[in-house]
């Protein structure tokens, strides 16, 4: 019978998108528990014409819960994820807390579904499944079909990341700053220490001793885990750009075996969860606005890398909705695999 669900962090941007995706996809559930911090407990929300009272997340929240969707930050996942697993829940965690744990599958359903094949609903045994970082999901949705055909040996990624990745408050600040700047006022800088409107800057994640920020190293490490290939060379530069909710990524791929651009285009046209927008005469290629609020990742600018001999290199440009496929949709597709 249909599973009982819990949504942890239901008031956040991803938490709200969990509910939208559950409804859009007719995900079957016999009950659903809306969980958030003490601050939100007691508030009402309507979901699928039913009224729900948001409950405070506690250690007892997971009794009888089959699947728990988490998106409330790494510290909440670290504290309550294991508790939920002990109570027999299968946790799909959108935070980075457990992504690199060798016992936790890191899953993009269209890419590496087998990584979670040992996890069964109804076994009474809880488990943890990690949702990859949004920029990783969006990149690998396009890069993996090509990798499966010609084996990527090196990937260089430049990302152009939306405000939504920094949360609902960042989206609100971008809108506020845009108005303020247009009105000749001093922009309000609370979320980011610098002006964001009409500007762009290196991703706000902490910078590590090697000079990369955490967002860039997530792309490097998560790609190797998801592809189960510790030798693939990955480097990344992640930039925050004044766009609301969809990431864009420029991806350069170097292959072990030749792959010409026409074959690459065909592979991508047939790839699940991918749409090709690649019209050179009209200069029509993926844009963040085009993919916003949509499930599919869009890819274009497919072209042979002229810096490589033969067909061993390819450049592509990818856009994907950060909140949907980059977080909530991917997590719920993972949950669907448990049904
Ligand atoms: C970002 N990847 O876009 C992060 C969100 N999890 O900032």
From TrEMBL:
It is an enzyme of class 1 (oxidoreductase). It catalyses: L-aspartate 4-semialdehyde + phosphate + NADP(+) = 4-phospho-L-aspartate + NADPH + H(+). It comes from the Eukaryota. SMART domains: Semialdhyde_dh. The keyword rRNA-binding does not apply. The keyword Amino-acid biosynthesis applies. Keywords: Amino-acid biosynthesis, Diaminopimelate biosynthesis, Lysine biosynthesis, Methionine biosynthesis, NADP, Oxidoreductase, Threonine biosynthesis. Belongs to the aspartate-semialdehyde dehydrogenase family. This is aspartate-semialdehyde dehydrogenase. The lineage of its organism: Eukaryota, Viridiplantae, Streptophyta, Embryophyta, Tracheophyta.
């Amino acid at each position: 019978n249909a599973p009982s669900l819990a949504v942890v962090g239901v008031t956040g941007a991803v938490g709200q998108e969990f509910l939208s995706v559950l409804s859009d996809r007719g995900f079957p559930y016999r009950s659903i528990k809306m969980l958030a911090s003490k601050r939100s407990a007691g508030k009402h929300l309507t979901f699928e014409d039913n009224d729900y009272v948001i409950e405070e997340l506690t250690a007892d929240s997971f009794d009888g819960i089959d699947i728990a969707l988490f998106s409330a930050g790494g510290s909440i996942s670290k504290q309550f994820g294991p508790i939920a697993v002990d109570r027999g829940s299968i946790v799909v965690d959108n935070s980075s807390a457990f992504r690199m744990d060798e016992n936790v599958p890191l899953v993009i359903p269209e890419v590496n579904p087998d990584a979670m094949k040992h996890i069964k609903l109804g076994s009474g045994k809880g488990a943890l499944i990690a949702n990859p970082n949004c920029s990783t999901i969006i990149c690998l949705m396009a890069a993996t079909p090509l990798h499966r055909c010609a084996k990527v040996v090196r990937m260089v990624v430049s990302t152009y990341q939306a405000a939504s990745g920094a949360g609902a408050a960042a989206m609100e600040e971008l809108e506020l700053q845009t108005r303020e700047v247009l009105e000749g006022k001093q922009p309000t800088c609370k979320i980011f220490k610098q002006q964001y409107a009409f500007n762009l800057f290196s991703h706000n994640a902490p910078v590590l001793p090697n000079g990369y920020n955490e967002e860039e190293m997530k792309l490097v490490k998560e790609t190797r885990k998801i592809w189960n290939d510790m030798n693939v060379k990955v480097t990344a530069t992640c930039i925050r750009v004044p766009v609301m909710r969809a990431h864009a990524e420029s991806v350069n791929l170097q292959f072990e075996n030749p792959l010409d651009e026409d074959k690459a285009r065909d592979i991508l046209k047939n790839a699940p969860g991918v749409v090709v927008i690649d019209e050179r005469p009209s200069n029509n290629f993926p844009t963040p606005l085009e993919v916003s609020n949509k499930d599919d990742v869009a890819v274009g600018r497919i072209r042979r890398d002229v810096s490589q001999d033969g067909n061993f290199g390819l450049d592509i440009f990818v856009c994907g909705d950060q909140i949907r496929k980059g977080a909530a949709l991917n997590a719920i597709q993972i949950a669907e695999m448990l049904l």
